[in-house]
Amino acid sequence: MAQFQEVEKQSIMHPKPPGLTLHYGTAGLRTNAKHLDHAMFRMGLLATLRSKNTKATIGVMVTASHNPEEDNGLKLIDPMGEMMAPAWEHYATQLANADDLLTVLKDIIEKEAINMSQEANVFVGKDTRSSSARLSQAVLDGVSALDGHSKDYGLVTTPQLHYMVRCQNTKGKYGEATLDGYYSKLCQGVVCYFYDQKLLSVDGANGIGALKVREMESHLKKELQISLFNDGSQGKLNYQCGADFVKVQQKPPTGFKMNPGERYCSFDGDADRIVYYYTDSEGQFHLLDGDKIATLMSTFLKELLEQAGLNLKVAVVQTAYANGSSTHYLENTMKVIVRCAKTGVKHLHHAAQEFDVAVYFESNGHGTVLFSEAAEEKICQLAEDPNINDEKKRAALLLQNTINVINQTVGDAISDMLFIEAILAIKGMSVQQWDAVYADLPNRQLKVKVADRRAIDTTDAERRAVSPPGMQDTVDSLVNKYKQARSFVRPSGTEDIVRVYAEADTQESADALAHEVSLAVYRLAGGVGEEPKPL
Ligand code: G16
């Protein structure tokens, strides 16, 4: 077959480094950029097969998101803009590691009964890393080797590419598959919301989000005033800035001075995560992470649904990292359904699809809102009903606007920011009032380097370790030493480390527990380098 000859010919230009093994992890492939050329070419092949298989456009985003500048990676996007189906992740890993590429390729074609004469379309985007241009070219080479059509969107945020894929496959029903279409849809949703808000300062993590906030500004009128810092003009991507740094370090990014009481937010390197923060009059730093965002959004939506008289089921999906106070508040005060999913947006998204309206957020600020088709229909019908009272009308229109502002394909820092700002404006709520809704339990996240992170295996939505032997018993006995304590360990799917999470009644206890659990990981799971030191 001519296509296979072309693959063979082209693959010589994208050789696999000997002995290298990659895994399709939490959000795709991710490692040092110098090891990725062959994998990018091969993922171009896989995306083309997936497109033929689904008879729809597939997306490939070249990014390593929150990882350092020297890393890169790729996220594959399925037809409705969601992360690629887990069943295909196995193929991605197989293909990336194949020594005999054609045999693995033919095997996938046979197993999935793919019709190779079916047309294929792949959308490609990239972040601002210096390696992204060459790696996205390798993806495009892979697509053309299998005779697929491609559209290169160039520099876009990850959620923008997810949006484009969904627009294309819904034939424009979701929106127009252009950047202009994206900004217009989001900004059209906010246009009637904003009033009297003070300046919002945005940390762009020196990445793509900064460029795109600039681009969006011309679509906003006076609804929102944004001051952008860490915009990539001098600092390094994700270095001492960005959502991951702020969340994990629990401190402000470098690159600017914070004024007490003002609102700040940080994006991550591909703008699919956002966290908010401020300092109080005593200079104390306060973080409003994904849990606080989920609470704000779900409360707002629940109130609007009640005002609109719509009986729709609202749920919040979190992960094991969710602060215990947030789960307690949502279940006991807000009385919403709460579900716990494994880390990774694909797991949260899937769990959220079971409900009429579901807010899903990871504590790290990755999340969005999903409306079922039936819920959207009910909201739109009500908004157009001439026989309802003003309160119902207002609520229905606000819900309709929310559907436009929200990027329902995946977490989106720009869209989440617009929605959060709208909620604060409508409720006349300051960032301090939002923060005061419930008090977070003090917590700490640490990383432990081990020889092979797969030594740790987990169950129960990653809340319990099943290996190595003795790990969970040790965690349990350490947790028992502290009040209101909880801790768990899990291997990262994006970095070569094990993550440790601990929370307790005081910061000292959370720090001590996190340290003791880190030591246990180091000793039981093959730690490398220096033993973890107390904080
Ligand atoms: C990715 C995923 C997130 C996940 C994060 C950390 O984020 O999309 O769902 O929470 O990695 O994952 P892990 O703990 O397995 O390393 P991003 O923003 O880096 O793409």
UniProtKB/TrEMBL annotation:
<comment type="function">
    <text>Catalyzes the conversion of GlcNAc-6-P into GlcNAc-1-P during the synthesis of uridine diphosphate/UDP-GlcNAc, a sugar nucleotide critical to multiple glycosylation pathways including protein N- and O-glycosylation.</text>
</comment>
<feature type="domain" description="Alpha-D-phosphohexomutase alpha/beta/alpha">
    <location>
        <begin position="117"/>
        <end position="171"/>
    </location>
</feature>
<dbReference type="GO" id="GO:0005975">
    <property type="term" value="P:carbohydrate metabolic process"/>
</dbReference>
<feature type="binding site">
    <location>
        <position position="268"/>
    </location>
    <ligand>
        <name>Mg(2+)</name>
    </ligand>
</feature>
<keyword id="KW-0597">Phosphoprotein</keyword>
<dbReference type="GO" id="GO:0004610">
    <property type="term" value="F:phosphoacetylglucosamine mutase activity"/>
</dbReference>
<keyword id="KW-0007">Acetylation</keyword>
<feature type="binding site">
    <location>
        <position position="499"/>
    </location>
    <ligand>
        <name>substrate</name>
    </ligand>
</feature>
<feature type="binding site">
    <location>
        <position position="270"/>
    </location>
    <ligand>
        <name>Mg(2+)</name>
    </ligand>
</feature>
<comment type="pathway">
    <text>Nucleotide-sugar biosynthesis; UDP-N-acetyl-alpha-D-glucosamine biosynthesis; N-acetyl-alpha-D-glucosamine 1-phosphate from alpha-D-glucosamine 6-phosphate (route I): step 2/2.</text>
</comment>
<dbReference type="Pfam" id="PF02878">
    <property type="entry name" value="PGM_PMM_I"/>
</dbReference>
<feature type="binding site" description="via phosphate group">
    <location>
        <position position="65"/>
    </location>
    <ligand>
        <name>Mg(2+)</name>
    </ligand>
</feature>
<feature type="domain" description="Alpha-D-phosphohexomutase alpha/beta/alpha">
    <location>
        <begin position="52"/>
        <end position="90"/>
    </location>
</feature>
<dbReference type="InterPro" id="IPR016657">
    <property type="entry name" value="PAGM"/>
</dbReference>
<dbReference type="GO" id="GO:0030097">
    <property type="term" value="P:hemopoiesis"/>
</dbReference>
<feature type="domain" description="Phosphoacetylglucosamine mutase AMG1">
    <location>
        <begin position="200"/>
        <end position="275"/>
    </location>
</feature>
<dbReference type="Pfam" id="PF00408">
    <property type="entry name" value="PGM_PMM_IV"/>
</dbReference>
<feature type="binding site">
    <location>
        <position position="272"/>
    </location>
    <ligand>
        <name>Mg(2+)</name>
    </ligand>
</feature>
<keyword id="KW-0119">Carbohydrate metabolism</keyword>
<feature type="active site" description="Phosphoserine intermediate">
    <location>
        <position position="65"/>
    </location>
</feature>
<dbReference type="InterPro" id="IPR049022">
    <property type="entry name" value="AMG1_III"/>
</dbReference>
<feature type="domain" description="Alpha-D-phosphohexomutase C-terminal">
    <location>
        <begin position="447"/>
        <end position="518"/>
    </location>
</feature>
<dbReference type="Pfam" id="PF21405">
    <property type="entry name" value="AMG1_II"/>
</dbReference>
<feature type="domain" description="Phosphoacetylglucosamine mutase AMG1">
    <location>
        <begin position="289"/>
        <end position="428"/>
    </location>
</feature>
<dbReference type="InterPro" id="IPR016066">
    <property type="entry name" value="A-D-PHexomutase_CS"/>
</dbReference>
<keyword id="KW-0460">Magnesium</keyword>
<feature type="binding site">
    <location>
        <begin position="490"/>
        <end position="494"/>
    </location>
    <ligand>
        <name>substrate</name>
    </ligand>
</feature>
<feature type="binding site">
    <location>
        <begin position="362"/>
        <end position="364"/>
    </location>
    <ligand>
        <name>substrate</name>
    </ligand>
</feature>
<dbReference type="InterPro" id="IPR016055">
    <property type="entry name" value="A-D-PHexomutase_a/b/a-I/II/III"/>
</dbReference>
<dbReference type="InterPro" id="IPR049023">
    <property type="entry name" value="AMG1_II"/>
</dbReference>
<keyword id="KW-0479">Metal-binding</keyword>
<dbReference type="GO" id="GO:0006048">
    <property type="term" value="P:UDP-N-acetylglucosamine biosynthetic process"/>
</dbReference>
<dbReference type="InterPro" id="IPR005844">
    <property type="entry name" value="A-D-PHexomutase_a/b/a-I"/>
</dbReference>
<keyword id="KW-0413">Isomerase</keyword>
<dbReference type="InterPro" id="IPR036900">
    <property type="entry name" value="A-D-PHexomutase_C_sf"/>
</dbReference>
<protein>
    <recommendedName>
        <fullName>Phosphoacetylglucosamine mutase</fullName>
        <ecNumber>5.4.2.3</ecNumber>
    </recommendedName>
</protein>
<comment type="similarity">
    <text>Belongs to the phosphohexose mutase family.</text>
</comment>
<dbReference type="InterPro" id="IPR005843">
    <property type="entry name" value="A-D-PHexomutase_C"/>
</dbReference>
<dbReference type="GO" id="GO:0000287">
    <property type="term" value="F:magnesium ion binding"/>
</dbReference>
<dbReference type="Pfam" id="PF21404">
    <property type="entry name" value="AMG1_III"/>
</dbReference>
